[in-house]
Amino acid sequence: MDVIRILPEKVASQIAAGEVIERPASVVRELIDNSIDAAAEKIVIRIEQGGKRLIKVSDNGTGMHRDDLLLCIERHATSKIRAVSDLFSVKTLGFRGEALPSMSSVSRMEITSRPVDQLVGYRLKIAGGKLKSIDETGSPAGTIVELRDLFFNMPARRKFLRTVKTETDHIVDTLSRIALPFIRLHFRLDDAGKTVLNLPSSENELDRFSVLFGRNVAASMIDASQETGELRVRAYLAPSDLSRARGDRIFIYINNRNIRDRLVTRAVMEGYGQRLMKGRYPQAVLFLEFDPSLVDINVHPTKQEVHFSESHLVYKTVISTIERALGQRLHSVFDTGYLRQERSKGGHIDGAFMAEAEPKWEYSGPVQKEADPQEEFVLKERAQIIGQLKETYILCQVREGLLMVDQHAAHERIVYETLKKSYNSLPIECQTFLIPPKLEFSLKDGRVIMKRLDHLARLGLEIEHFGGSTFLLRSVPSLLVNVQWDDFLLELIPVLEDGGDLSNDRVLDRLLTIMACHGAIRASKRLSQEEMSRLLDQLEEMDLPTNCPHGRPIFQKFNYYEIEKMFKRVV
Ligand code: ADP
Ligand code: MG
């Protein structure tokens, strides 16, 4: 029975279009890509009704001759590659020759184009994939693509489009992402005649960041770069307390192409490490530059996914770039001061997009001064202890103002780092019980403990089987204080159970974090002057004295300027 048929061209191209063009923002993406590839210097985008009614992109790029205009709407027609081998040296954003034919099959489209060296231009009209006309016309040098009634001939697709506001947000987001690295090009987005995003040409990356992230976030970003073999990483990193609940401000670029990539995103998170609280995402921009032959960008029709041939190298390099940059930042963080400021005016764009989520916390910006070796993170010498607030916070006078240290968070950090260091080198300093506490577990938990006795011993927890599921706790790390031993061990059990392998850094980290949490000085505990002073001394020795192992801040600083402002001594 002959049941298999070749699909008519029209059906085939609508199916193909479905992959490339998902919503108005995908049209905008493809058209801007084309304008950038055509060496345009100014690109103006006009939309109406979230792009559902109209999307119009005008550029002053190379333009197209009449013959090319007729060809560009054919499937797989491209001027950007010629052979399979070219796929691995693509420097343009486009190369699949799919975008214009896809769009033209699902909308009513007009392309007007004139190369600079031609006196007249041409306008081509096409609707639902059918060529309507091509006529000579006067037009500025460059190309204008105008697309109306997206999905007019695919009612099911059209129905799935979201509200005008949502589609507009997607377009603004798409434009922002694409435009970020092309700082010398001027981009403008007009929504129903009103400019919502204007990105003038600039020499300085920070100018563009300011519009997209807000002025204060952009000014607080530190940059770092690193080169390993064929890979160059440049990172712009906002401090961790400007983190967000969503990962929508992690911008990743490969050779100036904005991509979404799980591996790089994970590396960014890893690089920030314990500076971030659980469930928080940093604001960061990562530019990766690669020999094009080492990345496969032909993974998905939207060209937003890639395969790296050396993914491990990418992962490691991104992490170490970020760790080094943030590690250096540490000293200046302490000096710069965390200032609680009013929401700044200006520095954001019109419309709801980035401005709506401008952080409440803002930085005064990094101090622009020569690094002074004396300026190192020295808590003790600077901090003069005033006393304890609510038996929880240590108040100190420092050169710049008032410093509040959360005693539990600080001690958690100390316990965590000290145990980790001793675990890696020396034996952990332990204390033996005169009368070992007796611990009772369920049968199942008892079996887990039984299996992991040697791991526990390596963490300084010497436990002896007493019979059945009863155990004796012989000795524990002397750093831990006031621990409810059975609660504590109960919390360790799930970690021991599903990944008892301590050579795995993650497992070790989880165990140490639990130990730090249970073993650290509690909030609401009175401390003597001497205890507070010792705590600050120890904190000073830590690699990451700013955040506890869960990512919560350890101290906050109130700058004299801010204090004086509160009391209206200054304006
Ligand atoms: P691709 O970008 O993958 O080549 P497209 O369908 O997006 O495929 O475009 C087809 C071709 O049309 C391009 O290769 C290019 O030669 C031409 N083209 C598209 N847009 C423009 C533009 N704005 N300016 C000049 N040429 C363009
Ligand atoms: Mg294209």
Based on the model shown, name its key terms.
elongated; 36% helix; 571 residues; binds magnesium ion; 19 helices; 5-stranded mixed β-sheet; binds adenosine-5'-diphosphate; alpha+beta; 8-stranded mixed β-sheet; single chain
In short:
This protein has 571 residues and is α+β, with helices and mostly antiparallel strands. β9 and β10 form a beta hairpin. α1 (9-20) crosses α4 (99-105), α13 packs across α17 and α13 crosses α18.
General description of the model:
By secondary structure, the chain is an alpha+beta fold. 36% of the residues lie in helices and 23% in strands. The chain has 19 helices and 23 strands. The strands form 5 sheets. The chain has an 8-stranded mixed beta sheet with strand order 5-4-3-6-2-1-7-8. A hairpin with a 2-residue loop joins strand 17 and strand 18 (401-406). Helix 9 packs parallel to helix 10. It is elongated, with a radius of gyration of 30 Å.
Unreliable spans: 329-376
Question: How does the overall form come out from the CA principal axes?
Answer: elongated
Helix content: 25-40%
Which radius of gyration do the C-alpha atoms yield? Answer: 30 Å
Strand order of the largest sheet: 5-4-3-6-2-1-7-8
Terminus-to-terminus distance? 87 Å
| Overall residue-averaged pLDDT value | 86
Class inferred from helices and paired strands: alpha+beta
- Strand tally: 23
Annotation field: number of helices: 19
Bound ligand species:
adenosine-5'-diphosphate, magnesium ion
Strand content: 15-25%
Main sheet characteristics: 8 strands, mixed
